[in-house]
Amino acid sequence: MKNYLFLLIMLVSCGEKDFVAKKNVDENSFLNTRGSDVISGCNNNFNYNKPKVDFLFVWDNSPSTKFIDDSTINALNGILDSFSPEFEKHVLIAPMNYLSDEKDQNLFFIKDSQDWTSSKANSILTQMKNVTPKKYLKELMPKLGNGFGYEQGVERARQLLNDLRGDGIFRNNAYTIIVVMSTGDIAYDIPPGQYATFSQKNAYINKKVSEFNALKTNMNAEQLRFMSISAHSECKSGYRIGYGYQQVSKLLNPSQNDAWNICTQSFSRIFEEINNNIQSEKIRHKYDHWAITPVNVPNFDVNDITVKDTNGNIIPQSTTNGWQYLGYTTRDRKYYPERGDSYTGLLIQLFGTARLDFGECLEIITREPIIYYGYLLLNSKPLEDSINLSIDGQIVPRADLGVSASQRNGWEYIGQQINQNVKVKSASEFMVEGTPAEYRSGYMIRLYGRYIIDNTKVTKYQIQYLPTSD
Fold first, then answer.
1. The pLDDT of residue 85
2. Residue 305 near residue 346 (C-beta atoms within 8 A)
3. Cα(279)–Cα(458) distance, integer angstroms
């Protein structure tokens, strides 16, 4: 009998030991990911936009033209080639004289931007895909003339600029450069064979200048220049003083010397000076804002920013020869010669000697923003009453659900969640989702109050629980 009782006790004891359920132990860590990171450097694609430059060359195509030769064509190529690295250019070459039904035909158009252009503009691009300016001018541009020495060069330029805006050939917010070449003068809306009085000439000129200024306003042009290459005296046989061309050049941009004299300079020299004149525009661009990133980064700490110039010198955070953090906003980055180059993102404003000329850049060194996590994922479904949570070896209590959520500390089991954003805005705003979202699915614990986890240090947590087979 004693032996039977002993055996029964042993069997019961073994059963209790062998069949007690083992708890799952889920362990994981949040890492410190806030290392230094160069966010903004010279080569980032969200730095300054390349200035847009749109060229319109109105070319004298009369049978007696002096402008279609190798020297002028080589000079033209020099202008076009010099802008590729620094400017986004559109180039249209058009004959000055045309048949009444061909005003938008026989055009040469090339571009190196990705900006939208219409089907008509794209058709011209396709036609001229394998055509050089030299081939176009010498072989494809029609040779027409009116035989009176008077022409519509100014109106032709205005008409092309106005009519082709809608096709994307001439863009808003661009530097628009018109170059008109002629050995004659404009017709001043006077019938062929008649001569305009001085007052008629000036009235016509003022009207055209006003129309060009209206176009400049409508296009929000950075600049609109009318560069004329004409005779300033009757220096050669067949040359007529281009008074109208000269006056439009001078009145449209009084501060610029845009009226070029073919009587005293060679074509190649004039084109070289035009080239240098336009190239100087890039030097004049000055900037007082710098983009850090186009993304609205939450919890971005201004104290983590280090700003360096191109020589590696640290620029202080100061409104005197330094910088100031503006946050996520929209500002014009360029302040001279006019405000422009609008940008939306995280920006700093530059002051005094910290401001930049075109081509200069900054390096901004910062750390990844603080990321806050308010949810922990379990590997399987738990028996809720069996859950024990510890963070960095410290037991975390269950949250008191009887108080408002913003006053809670601890944890709450929230069951299975699908595509739950596990980030929260901050340690104090843990009821607000963090951005950008980080989605997880599974059985989850929600954290409250001082138990919110962040990425400023290595954090280890352990969740013990009995699994359920449900």
1. 65
2. no
3. 54
